[in-house]
Amino acid sequence: MITTQTHSERxxxxxxxxxxxxxxxxxxxxxxxxxxxxxxxxxxxxGELAVLLLTYIVSExxxxxxxxxxxxxEHHRSLEKITGWKIAEKEAxxxxxxxxxxxMGKPERISEMSISISKYLVKAYELPTEKGRSDTTSxxxxxxxxxxx
Length: 149
Description:
mainly alpha, 7 helices
């Protein structure tokens, strides 16, 4: 008799969040500006770890690093399938996330990354200036009438 083992995980909003973080090129922008993690830290790059951390923060509405490792374990199969990355068991420990934030938090890196990400995400368009328009939309105010009037 052949038995089939099934495994289920709730994926909720994970594919959508990761899709948008990929569209924003978060991982590649971070990896472009940060050094390779310390030699003893094998596995995901800082950019890839940042995607996991941001996905956790947005999905769970929780910014505590102590919970990320457990969350990654609970969603391990889904995260690997969605990202295509090999995610090790201890990939998202609070120490590893702390190293990421400490490395990203250096003032010179913050300004470099902010400029780089802004150049990619913020679009500016030159608008015609020959004509100007004024919106004269009216609005109503509802209030109680004073007896002094």
